[in-house]
User: Fold Cation-transporting P-type ATPase from Clostridium bovifaecis.
Amino acid sequence: MRAWYNSSWNEVVRELESDFKYGLTEDRVKQNRKNFGDNKTLNLKNKSFIILFLKHMSKLYCILGILITIFLFYTYNWKSAAFLCCTTLFSMLLYAIKDYKNENRLNNLRSITPQKADVVREGKLLNLKPEELVVGDIVCVEKGDIVPADLRIIECEELKVKESAISGDIKLVEKYETKIEDKELLPSDMKNILFKSSFVIEGSAKGIVVEVGENTEIGKITKDLLEENHEKSLLEESISDITNLMSKVFTFSIVLIGIYAIYAKINLAEFMELVSTIYLSLVPMHIMIIVALISLIVRKKMKESTIEIGELSSMQMLAQTNVVFVNKVGTLTEENMFVKKLFSDGEIMEINSESLEESKDNIDRMINIGLLCNDAKVNDAGKIDKGEVIERAIIEYGKENSLHKRILEREQERVFQVPEDWDKRVKTTLNRIEDKYRANVIGAVDKLLERCTHIMKNGMEVEITPKDIIDIRDADLALSEDSLYVVGFAYRNFGYQPSINENIESNLVFVGLMGFDNPLKENSVECIEYCKRLAVKPVVITDDNKIAANSVGKKLGILNKNDVALSGVEIDNMEDNELEKMVERVGIYSKISSKNKWKACSEFEKLGYNIAVTGNKFTDLPSFRAAKVGIATGKECTQITKNLGDVFIEDKDFGKLLSLIDTSRKLTRSIRDIILFNLVIAFIEFFSIIMVNIFFKQASIGFGEILWINFMPLVLCSLLIYTQNENIEGNSYEASYIDKRIFNKFNSGIILYIICVTALSVIGLIIQGKKGMFTGNIIIFTILNISPIMFSFYFVKLKDVIKNKMSSLIMVLNVIFYGVFFKISYSDYLMNLNKLLWDLKVIIVFLLIHIFLIKFIKETDIN
Assistant:
């Protein structure tokens, strides 16, 4: 942004060839639109639902499903065709809906964009769409409005705005029209500029548009959000890729089967029945249904723990996390502070020290300043309704010393406030004391000392000396080394009422320092150890100065021998590649801006780390987009941050976040095992179908049997594996993958199992087939139905299943459903007791072989 704040408003109007009374002419509007562009900041090019649906329709498994459905309808196989059509359509809709939601996530940004703007053009007040504004337009705003573009204020009246979308600060900011002489200001210091998407809370103003579209401050932020485009549906894409790969295997096999069908002179109807059966067995679209079910269960379970998960992909990304950025307050420390030590009259004192009485005048003045320069709200009962932790701590300390905020505010009425900002780091209120006035100032010690010319000693004002300054700095250092958050207190008296445009934050009288203790949570150190056991690097962000940050980092165990703390000022003054070289060594960041945070995240990403970032403000969103996972936290989290984050955790507790990472890893391993489980059964079904057709020249296993196995025992056994995810063996630091590499899990034991079960199916059909194909079909169906139940114990332990009520229920349901299906399909067979008893003996033999196989391959894999 050009330094419009350095020019008077009439110079800006003149430079932009406008008129503050009549505004721009239509010709000038066209010229400025051509020169400076339009006022669009949200160029969201979202794909329509139809486009996304067609995108998934173009996947190989969907194309094959549609083609087979058409052929089944052509051969009058209505039931198979209808079911395959529904399954294919469901998978396309499921993925298209998920993608559509992701495409439209950034539409939440529209909530900070105004719908209309009052603009003066050619002497007329028009109500236009914000997109129609151009540089040079004269705009009017009032209470309740959202600022439609970056404006240089021409005139205003008691104007207060909320710039949280720009600065991240939720405090109200007072604005004025006066020219600012300072150079190179941060946006938060530009008090004569109204930024687009700021909310007008009080007052009214007229201003001239100086920046539009992506050149506005909010435009730069949203541009970063739109450019950062991490894939947010990793799990769904991975499953889709695996299904596509199996579709290629199916296509290759069908070519060979087609050649065989021509040779064996199989008619078209039989061939299509065989093709549809193989497609259903080999292309595991039921995995999508299983993952959708697990997603519903997980989301419901997480919601009970006040955690909101958008989709399972978020947990998969969390499982891969190896760096996590967290704020200190509320996460590792309590969300409250208390005054622990004071410095005044050249002495550091404990709050219960006897020497406090000797410095009572100074101490009382510090408390007075802290209570008056304080935006916390105290109700009639004396309880604090809202306010920042420092403000709350001062109020509580005031009560301990019989000084009450509400009483003081009645006696010393506030006239106006000069808010704190990022660079200045001091906050001031002007209060009336009878017929005089006092500026009460609190803030960062170094910034405060720059403005002090006097010091209060024993209740008297004297000129500050170099030795006093050294003593103050030494005290600041000592308090910081004690891990205390240090705030300085000063004031200035006036015999007249100064205006807000005067520099009332100069020629101050220094009073003293307060050191605030922010207690560590009881489990903080254990959480850091837990974090390291998970092989996750904790990176802490704090508002403490660098010395206090260093002390806190060592106390928590974050900073080891080679680790360092880094301040925002240091980052701002670094060369482009300096941060990249040292980012891995930084364990704690002190007083950094949102831009610094984003930069640190980006440097980690360049080095190949998977980052999780916590935040609760709009300005945290660029960091969310730079990271693998954005985690919105806390009850005070803004709605837009919550909506655009991947995960929302109401409780800021670090232990809860780490537990979620651990749970995500177990869940990811569980889903990986479920996919592997389904693929193994798919190959067993496929090879069994092929071998039976080759040896017996007819289909013993039809579409209906495979449909039953895939959508009943397989789904139930997959849920059984999920219910045991807490008992999955493996290292807590192991981040499992779910992609095509899953085929690497097909070790010698699993391949042996596929071969053996396929052989059992063929042998069972040969043995029982002598009594008739109907009896043989029952045996082969039973073997294939038992296979998923037995193979699920490759992934879980029987003793764990028995202990878990849900797992036990699933096992019982599997047996019951099989019995029901068997009775419906083979009711005549059940009437022949002699045959039934004989076949039961055969089935028991095959069952024992299964048990031996599972035990053998598990031991083989372990060894």
